[in-house]
Glycosyl transferase family 2
Amino acid sequence: MLSTNISIIVPCYKQAKYLDECLQSVFDQIFTDWECIIVNDGSPDDTEFIAKKWIEKDSRFKYFYKENGGLSSARNFGIESAVGEWILPLDADDYISDDYLQLAKSHFKNNNLKVIYCLARKFGLQTEILKLEKFSLKQLALENVIFCTAFYKKSDWQKAEGYDENLKSGYEDWEFWINILKESGEVLKLEKVCFFYRIKEDSMLINLKKINDESTIQYIENKHRLFFEKNLGSIRNLYRENEQNKKVLDAINKRFFSRVVNKLYSIKENFFNRF
């Protein structure tokens, strides 16, 4: 029997209706040296029934149940039980191409690599390429530029002490990438669409909520203050610069709007002065 090289972690909470499609994409992998750990995070739907069908079909699928604790908690729980050298998180409502593991595996010998990801496409309510800025530490300090379904070593997860379970409302991926990449390590992007990210109504609402979640962003900035200051300068100074830039833009917009109104008023006056 092959030793397991990749552990795929699938946390599940109220996503049972998508789980078959997700697990089918794992089952279809060209590269076969994997295990798939399904973590039922206290889900009240048919997650257990569907998961057990797959563990009966293929022994590489493993199933665990835990009390609900959130996404970070479910991932940590699954990774703790993982035996693979490399970890690939995969949310239960998404799926991967059949060659994603094979393409990533060809780069595992590069010991400097810490993260491997790919091009991604949205599906569901939106169907387009997922647009992310090119990775750099500076760009990572500005925003998350790597989605959750990327490969990394379990040893790096251990050094980072896992996903931060204090992050209940999102940004857990962003904080995790900062945590494992802030000191050193290379990131590789495969130039092929291998990840498919489902867009549905609740995911759009979650993304909107995340954009406005200033307290979570501040928590991450405080936790990794040296990283942000190294790549962006003083966060406080950056904030002041942004505030100043906003004031300048507001002033420009007001002046532009004022000129437009005055011009329209002048045209109106000239028109009526003809009669």
